[in-house]
Structures are given as structure tokens and as C-alpha cells.
Amino acid sequence: MSLLDYTAVELAAKIKAGETTATEAMEAVIAQIEKSEDELNCYVTFDKEKALAAAKKADEDIKAGKLTGPLAGVPFAIKDNMCTEGMLTTCSSKILGNFVPTYTADAVERLQNAGAVIIGKTNMDEFAMGSTTETSAFGATKNPRNPEHVPGGSSGGSAAAVAANECFAALGSDTGGSIRQPASYCGVVGLKPTYGTVSRYGLIAYGSSLDQIGPLCKDVTDCATIMEAIAGKDDKDSTSIGRDDYSFTNALVDDVKGMRIGIPRDYFGEGLDPEVKEAVLNAAKVLESKGAILEEFDLSLVEYAIPTYYTIAAAEASSNLERFDGVKYGYRTKEYEGLHNMYKKTRSEGFGAEVKRRIMLGSFVLSSGYYDAYYLKALRVKALIKKAFDEAFAKYDVILGPVAPTTAPKLGSSLSDPIKMYLGDIYTISVNLAGLPGLSVPCGKDKNGLPIGLQLIGDCFKENNLIRAGYAYEQARGRFE
């Protein structure tokens, strides 16, 4: 077994036992990046010397007994919308092409305190707006399972880096499925935690009421372990919530006996690829064979999720992206006449087409005369969607369904039709609207060898139900190759 094949937790155990070092692990990752990065384009920023120096420091701290945690010495990648002090943070946009933050995001800082070693920043859809990592100003990322296909988005660089062994684990962010969908497309594990569980301090905002940071990794054990490192109350984030229990690894038990699993009929109707449907339902049967109780039910309002999400997310984006105007930091147009012309030219040249589309949509739904008709109505529907989930979780411990309607589409096939791209989020966005946790676990492949993801959805603060179900399924399935 090659060093790169270990999970993050396995690698940390090997480093602790003195069988390898953080420096050797980082050298193996760097060699893999140099071998495959020209084709895959997973990273926006990668500083080889800095990464090796950080790994060497981790080795010294491990030897001195300062770092003893289950992630000590493990090379990690960070999505390029999380601020890292002294390291370029661009959101994969020209408008932030020269932005070097003076502080580090809380989640990244917690990861570093746990002993993780940062490799660099991963490619993403510009400002996290997209589902394919093709809207990046630095070119598209390719899917390591088949480079003719997209890796998903917006955390496509993070998911692809994990799948390609260009890191041992990564952080991503999820606004409408941006951790779970690329995890599904690349055949890795991804968790979107309950809103407020992981601090958003230092995460460059897209939709503030929807964004949440979470892990992308090789298995459910890594997922639970990383969550213990990054979760926690943060006074710098007013939406951060203090929880009584952060012991996610306690849920790593191979036992789902008596667990009630609801399967929404609405998720298995028209538009779902037959191979995806079969793989997901087969995974459900595996859990049933281990003692889980399966039941079909109707989860209403599914068809309203997409218009609701894109109304709210675009409105919040238009507000959040006002700050990028060429005045204090970031890109500024070279030639302009007066302040207003500078704003206009800077934003026209600095933002890509998808970001402009969402800013314009958001500005429209917030404008006088349309605010009540669109934005307020969307907020009411959001509340109804949350109510529908509350009713479902009165009966079920976990809701099971697909992550996406199909496996990863070919490069270039989605950007020509934005509506088609938006529809790809049908199974993931309700989770964000309701602030719930969602886990994506690989559950098979289609006839072309592209991974299929199983989505497990839990009630607020019930990540442990998802971890338990995901771990039990993984134990039955074996290592995903």
C-alpha cells in the first residue's frame, strides 16, 4: 500500500508510531501534484517550499509531544474562499487575484491547531457560484476519475485533490450542495454540517444564511475526525452556535439496528438517471439488511426548492459582493474616468459571467416593487420547506436519497445551459434552506466508471446519525476504489 493510499487518520497514526513522517507525506503529495496537476488543475495556489517547511515544523512538534491529535502531520488542502494569513486567497476570481489576507479563517486555524499541514488553496467555481468548477478565472478542474468530465462544484478542486491523492483531505464550503455534489462526482466522502456548527469567520461569503464549511475526505472516519477538529462556537461569527456535544467519532459504530430511514418518493421520480436510482436503492437495501427500518414517504415542496434557493442565494450574493469595488483591495481597472466609471469597469472586468448573472438576479429580486413578490415569498417557502423536514424527522432518524440526478457531466456541457446546471442541485439545496446536515458517501459507479453518491440527510445537530449510517454502509461496502 502506497503512502498516498492511507486515509488522513491512518497516516496520522503511522506518523505517531514513527513509521513515516509529515515531511515524507508532504513529499509524496508534492510528487503527485507535480505528476497530475497540469492535467487536473486542482490548485490555484501551491507553495512547495512553504508546505515542506510547515511539514518539517509539524514533525518537530510531534517529536516534542506538542502535537498528539489524530490529524497531526497530515497534509490538507483548503478551498480558495477561506482566508489564510499570508497566502493568496482569490475565490477563483480575477477581482481578488492579488488578495493576501492578514488573518486566517477560524476553521482553518482550528485545523492547523490540530496539527494539519496546509498544502495550498484549491480551485473552485468563482465565488462558489456554479456546480462544475468551470466558472473559475483560473480554468476548469478535471475529474480524476475521468478527465473528460467535471469534478462538480463549487468545491470541485478540493474533491478532485482528495480523489487524485493530491492531498489526504480537504475543506470545502457548501451553499447549495457544493461539498456533497463534488464528493459524489469524484467518489469521495463529503459532509455539510448543520448551519452554525462550523464558524464562517474568514469564509468569503456567497449566501450568508446558507454557507457552511465542511470536510471532503476518503472515508467516514476521516469525516468525523475532521469535524471534531473544526467545529465549535466562535464569538467572531454571530451565526455560530454552541453545542453540548462535539464528539462525532463516537458515532463510528457499525450498528444501524432499529434506525428509521425515510426514502422520499419525490427524489426518485422523473429526471433521475436509472443507474443512479439503482445504486442508491441498493445502498438502502444494505442498510436494511443490517437492521435499519426503511419506509417510503412524500416530502412535499421539492419542486419549489430550486426557485427558492436561487432567489435567496442571489439576493444575498448581490449584497455580499458589493464590497468588491476596486477601492480598498483586490483588482482595480487601469483606465477610468471618475469614481462611478471606476466601479463599473472594475466590476465588469473583475467578475465572470455566472457571478454577474447572479448579482443581477439578486439585485432584481431585492429591488423596489419586486422585493415582496420574489424575495419575501422565497423566505416564506424556505420556512415551509423547513417545516416539511421537521415533520419528516418526527418519524425518521435519517432521510436517504441521491446526491445528484446523474453522474458527472462532460466538461463544457453545463455552462451552455445555466438552467440545466441549476437543476442538478435539486436534491441538495433543500438541506441548506433548512440548515440541516447532509452526508455524501460513494455507493457505486455507472457503466462508464463514474462514481455515484448516496446522500444521507439528518435533523439539525444530528450529524452523528449520518456518520453512524454512513460508517455502517461503508463497512459493508468496503474501501471505495
Description:
The structure is a single chain. This protein is α/β, with parallel strands linked by helices. 39% of the residues lie in helices and 13% in strands. It has helices spanning 8-16, 22-40, 48-63, 106-113, 156-163, 180-186, 220-230, 274-289, 302-320, 338-350, 353-365, 371-393, 418-423, 429-433, 463-477; strands at 43-46, 75-79, 117-122, 169-174, 189-192, 212-217, 260-264, 293-297, 398-402, 438-445, 451-458. The chain has an eleven-stranded mixed sheet, sandwiched between helices. α2 (22-40) runs antiparallel to α3 and α7 (220-230) packs antiparallel against α15. The longest helix is centred in the C-terminal third of the chain and has 23 residues, at 371-393.
What are the SSEs and their pairings?
Elements: H1 8-16, H2 22-40, E1 43-46, H3 48-63, E2 75-79, H4 106-113, E3 117-122, H5 156-163, E4 169-174, H6 180-186, E5 189-192, E6 212-217, H7 220-230, E7 260-264, H8 274-289, E8 293-297, H9 302-320, H10 338-350, H11 353-365, H12 371-393, E9 398-402, H13 418-423, H14 429-433, E10 438-445, E11 451-458, H15 463-477
Parallel strand pairs: 2-3, 2-4, 7-8, 7-9
Antiparallel strand pairs: 1-3, 4-6, 5-6, 5-10, 9-11, 10-11
